[in-house]
Amino acid sequence: MMNPKHLFALFGLCGVLAAAALPAGAAGLQMSKHHAAVIKDCAVCHTQDNAVAGNAFVVPDDKVCMSCHGSYEALAKKTENLSEPNPHRSHHYGTGLSCTACHAEHSQPRAYCNECHEFKYTMP
Ligand code: HEC
Ligand code: HEC
Ligand code: HEC
Ligand code: HEC
Questions:
Q1: For residue 70, what is the DSSP state?
Q2: Which of ligand 3's atoms lies nearest the C-alpha of 30?
Q3: Is 123 touching ligand 2 by the criterion CB < 6 Å?
Q4: 56 with 46: CB under 8 angstroms?
Q5: Dihedral angle computed from the Cα positions of residues 20, 26, 29 and 31, in that order, rounded to the nearest 10 degrees
Q6: Mutate to test the pocket of ligand 2, among 79, 86, 105 (most ligand atoms within 8 A of CB)
Q7: What domains appear along the chain, each with residue ranges and CATH number?
Q8: 94: β partners
Q9: pTM here?
């Protein structure tokens, strides 16, 4: 199958397919294991409102995540008793880091902090 990034480039060139249509190759993409059972429609995250340059099939905005998971502050409360520093309220970024700097939907999540640190997070 073609790399979805290439498909994007193609759609970018056409410029007409905009957000309504699902990019052909994207149908094979799986949702994350934590969302597969609870979110049935891709358009829950990939909306025109979140579209970047007219293409809804790019990284969605944090506001979608927060519409279900609550505010950054609420998340920070949930993770304040970890043995490692709170990823949702950090020394450098406060509550300003995009959710998708760490969490992912169709690929492996990775704690951005560990570009520099070696924190032992269990990344969901
Ligand atoms: C339509 C509502 C909805 C949206 C939108 C949504 N989620 Fe979720 N998410 C859920 C539900 C429901 C669960 C499973 C129950 C739970 O763990 O809260 C879940 C689970 C998760 C988990 C696993 C939590 C755990 O304890 O293992 C993570 C991480 C997560 N979501 C992150 C995100 C991110 C990042 C986004 C935005 C890209 C997002 N979610 C968008 C509803 C949503
Ligand atoms: C710096 C990396 C990072 C960022 C940015 C981040 N998270 Fe997390 N998130 C984590 C880690 C790490 C955990 C798991 C901590 C643990 O249990 O070890 C987590 C846990 C969660 C959970 C499960 C919380 C629980 O215990 O019930 C949800 C839901 C979640 N994140 C959603 C989000 C959303 C939504 C955003 C953006 C508003 C976000 N995260 C931003 C790293 C991050
Ligand atoms: C919970 C929110 C959420 C849902 C639901 C969701 N996505 Fe995504 N999507 C994302 C995020 C976050 C990214 C950024 C890349 C990543 O996390 O892997 C993304 C990226 C993409 C991309 C860009 C290609 C890539 O991998 O970089 C495509 C295409 C895509 N999604 C298609 C889909 C399709 C098709 C569905 C339905 C089966 C779907 N998405 C459901 C959050 C979501
Ligand atoms: C680009 C590299 C880089 C990234 C990414 C990064 N850090 Fe740091 N961090 C540092 C450096 C360098 C220091 C020491 C200087 C300072 O305190 O700012 C530090 C210091 C810290 C400290 C203080 C340590 C102490 O003993 O006083 C904490 C806590 C911390 N980081 C947490 C985080 C968390 C949580 C994340 C992810 C949300 C993160 N860092 C991401 C480079 C980074």
A1: -
A2: 38
A3: yes
A4: yes
A5: -10
A6: 79
A7: 16-61 (no CATH), 64-115 (1.10.1130.10)
A8: 90
A9: 0.91
Residues 25-52 pLDDT 10s? 676 788 999 999 999 999 999 999 888 8
Give me the amino acid identity at 22.
L
Which among 105, 88, 106 has a CA at the least distance from the CA of 97?
A: 88
Residue 55, beta-bridge partner list: 52
Atom of ligand 2 nearest to the CA of 66: 35
Six-digit token string for 40:
């049935």
In tens, the pLDDT along 57-86 reads 899 999 999 999 999 999 999 999 999 999
- What's the distance, Cα to Cα, between the start and end of the chain in Å? 27
**Tokens 């609420």 belong to residue:** 74
Which distant-in-sequence residues (6+ apart) come within 8 Å of 42 by Cβ? 22, 31
